[in-house]
Amino acid sequence: MSTATTPNDHAAASHGEHLAHHFDNAEQQFESGKLGMWIFLSTEILLFGGLFCAYSVYRSNHPEIFLYAHRFLDKPLGAINTAVLICSSFTMAWAVRCTQLGRRKALVRLLGATIALAACFLGIKYVEYRHKWREGLLWGKEFHATFERPAAPVIPPPKPAPGINPDERSLIPPAAQGPSGLARPGERRYVEEAGGPPHDVQVFFAVYFLMTGLHGIHVIAGMVLLTLILLRATRGEFGPSYFTPVDLAGLYWHLVDLIWIFLFPLLYLIR
Amino acid sequence: MEKPDNVPTSGHAVVGHVVPFRVLATVWGLLLVLTVVTVAVAGVDLGSLNLAIALAIAILKASLVLLFFMHMRYDRPMNAIVFVSALLFFMLFVTLALLDTHAYAPEVIPGYAPALPR
Fold first, then answer.
1. Predicted ipTM?
2. Nearest to A85 by CA among B82, B45, B65
């Protein structure tokens, strides 16, 4: 670390202090930090990618579960949460711009706004989770919700036709009782016809809580990070010549927004 | 340790490009509009197109956030290469998993896989 003790008149001119010895200049250090952050964001994509893959496999195999169970999610709250995160991304990007222009007060206010919007997001999430908890719409084993119309009995697979047919009646079950019936491919009416929830409906809530829960943990971590950045900003540590932590924290926060941009339509807006 | 001698003493930016405020505000507005569009389109039954349109709009919103809020439009290409390659690998991952599960599922879940053709 540099030990520059040159007398400085302005607080923002902490030029040499932040330059580590293994970098040639501030720009190289900044670009290296950015690249490192993008690599970390790539690992985050792969982290959530595993969960999105599980979602894809489950949904493509059992669309009726997702179609039925997603209706218990609150679409307006989800849409409001999306707007809240978009606004927080905007204030974050604006905060980075203010740091680059040396506007310290605006930086502090915008960071505060970003954190406040994140808290708003978590509050709405809490309301949604609380509703699920009360209704028993939980994951896997913990699922204990009761439905107005009971679940349809599990349809056993048809027995294979024997070699000899003594009665000479057809052994092919009627279309409505067959496992996949004779419905047209892509037919989406089977939920209403079946009446109650499909078998294994708790799978949806396992997926829902895992994905939104992990995303929520990332929001909390982002809030902690941004609070630390805010504290440093109030002490005047950031300015046009050094704003790397603000920029990198901003990149992380935009990623959190990015993931929610995909989570919202995939979980809340299923047709 | 020597202080770099090419550092200006005035307050303008040493490194990086500053995104104009108008760009940030426009992108913000577009993102909110696209959110409204997503919700509106989800209210209309378009069959299998619903998922495709929802994903397309989500990709468009993600591109806006990536390019402008996350600065990718003005950055060095290496950052974009790193991130986009992660996205490509993710897509490969999901594609292979879906191909696999659709090839075997009827044998694993006899009689209860309504989505899959028998």
1. 0.81
2. B65
Q: Provide the CB-side half-sphere exposure for B77 (13 A, CA).
A: 0
- What domains sit in chain A, N to C, each tagged with a CATH number? 27-145+190-268 (1.20.120.80)
Identity at B30, one-letter amino acid code: L
Q: How many Å separate Cα A40 from the centre of its chain?
A: 17
In A90-219, DSSP assigns E strands to none
Residues contacting A181, CB < 8 A, separation 6+: A175, A190
CB contact, 8 Å: B25 with chain A?
yes
pTM comes to 0.80
Distance of CA A94 to the CA centre of its chain: 23
Within an 8 Å CB–CB cutoff, is residue A42 touching chain B? yes
Give chain A positions within 8 Å (CB) of B83: 38, 41-42, 45
Q: What is the DSSP letter of A146?
A: -
A98-145: pLDDT as tens digits: 999 999 999 999 999 999 999 999 999 999 999 999 988 888 888 888
